[in-house]
Amino acid sequence: MDLFRKKSVDQLVAESTPLKRTMRTFDLTMLGIGAIIGTGIFVLTGKGALTAGPALSVSFLLAAVCCGFAGLCYAEFASMAPVSGSAYSYSYLAFGELIAFIIGWDLILEYALQAATVSAGWSGYFNKLLEGFGLHLPVELTAAYGTTPGVTTYFNLPGFVIVLLITWVLSIGINQTKRTNDIMVMIKLVIIVLFIVCTVWYVNPANWKPFSPYGIYTFQPNSTQPYGIVPAASIVFFSFIGFDAVSSSAEETVNPNKTLPKGILLSLAISTVFYVIMTLIMTGVVPYQQFANFIDAPVAGVILATGMNWLAFIVNLGALIGMTTVMLVQLYGQSRICYAMSRDGLFPKFFGEVHSKYRTPFKGTWFFGLLTAVAGGFININILFELVNIGTLSAFIIVSAGILWMRHTQPDAHRGFRAPLVPFTPICAIVFCLVLIAGLNWETWVRFAIWFGIGLVVYFAYSRKRSKLNGGEAAAETAAQTATV
Q: Between the CA of residue 312 and those of 48, 121, 192, what are the distances in Å?
């Protein structure tokens, strides 16, 4: 059996099972912004400022450039093969089944772990919002077990409930999903603009000096954590994760050859502008050293420093909305990856069953939604967010390398969008990803290797012999015969 058996573009398109096509450029752009703008601004800017100082804006720009090069590669693949599955499907096309399975397995970790991690941050902002109305949840139900030092906690009830609500929205149809996301993203952007307009007058340029106190990359005495622009970029890269989920919507997109590339690149560009402006203002209002006092809620801390307490409630609401859209897009992308892998026989048929009424992978959506809700409710996963980064960077490297390979092996294949300056663009994407991976700690590598090993066991024990390309039992079924609930 060939571990690197491939699919052709025609085969990928022919096997796709059209879901309900309603997504247009605006919806895709909102989907991308919904995934990108959230945790990065409302949570990670605190740790990022302590790591890079005012140069955090450069760190965000570095992470954005990395994603930009990768985004161009994603856009070309999306225009070649407008099918569900994102990097998984693209790897099947370029490198074959084993690499595709590994990337799909990698993406499952990325989407689930990010959604669960964000649910913990969402819970914190939700509790603060309740406190503003004089309401208090039992402290035991406000965080996962052992998350809050000095406080006994057992279960993150708000995080658990919000993941279930998002799963319900995703399961009942793409129209409901896109409308919910579009509305929340627009509200979030309005709140962010309000924050910028209100706080820019409090910027003190003296707080930007020295602009880069730790340089590009350095270690401080008595610290194992690297400091500087590159380590901070490795941290805030988490902020940009999710734009790749836009390409997972190919089978629900109108005219995907053109709209997918536009949605991917527009969402990246708009989000980057907001991140750079926000970080410059935040480090201009408050000296970067003081972010240690409000590392978990940096935006709220900046507002309190200005004395505009009335703005705190509005921004807390914006944080809730921002993180909700992040979770929505991550859970959406995860369900579509599993749907594509099930259709290829690499996952059980259960994950590929499409609901006859809602035209969504109903059971698979609820399966992973429940798992993510439980993970966010019970497990202290804050230390694992770097796993999401290394997993995503690995996927970006594979997709970028795939563009190099496809340009060499299939130069005449139809491409609705062509990444510019190839091979320069994909090579830059690979180099930037490797630089950011180098900024992660060794524990992250160990955890990633363990997850990688589990994936290989699953592939050789189950997926390899059941693959449709293997001619096994799954081969008799075609995408057009996908079971309905």
A: 21, 16, 12
